[in-house]
Write a structure and sequence with these properties.
Blueprint: H1 2-15, E1 22-27, H2 31-44, E2 48-54, H3 55-61, H4 64-68, E3 79-86, H5 88-97, E4 107-114, E5 117-123, H6 135-152
Antiparallel strand pairs: 1-5, 2-3, 3-4, 4-5
Helix pairs in contact: 1-6, 2-6
Length: 160
Amino acid sequence: MKKILLACILAVSVWAAPDTNVYTVSYKADMDTVEKNILSHFKSVKLVVTYKLDILEEFKHKGLDKKFGAEFNKNKLTSVRTMIICNGKFGNMIMNTDPSMMAYCPVRLTLVEKDGKTQVLFVRPSSAPKSSKAYGALVKLEQKVVGAIEAANEMEEKVK
């Protein structure tokens, strides 16, 4: 029953006009915990992570912290990571109906940590033109990703 209610809430929130094209949720948990939960749940719902990058560490490795000095990471973020996620079924549907919408698939998820809190950011595929023949598939893909993020971190306390 709880899962049905969650699915209904998520479906309504995806179909409602969002304030932004970026889905955002914050948890009172460190990034490693949030990421581990998300990766585990993605695997169970056939969302495949094809690429991961620790952006903040890569910037440091490239010497940007020294190059920018006091202007580097002014928000004092602890970690910034991104991952590319794909689902073959949705990718194939989108390719077959409107290849130009492949800009929305695979999808990108970004995690940002500061002060032990992690924010999950995801550009909504439903921000694509509604006139696209792939729009329905993009909305279903968004629902799948948002549902997986929410379900993966049910136990973590959300930041209000």
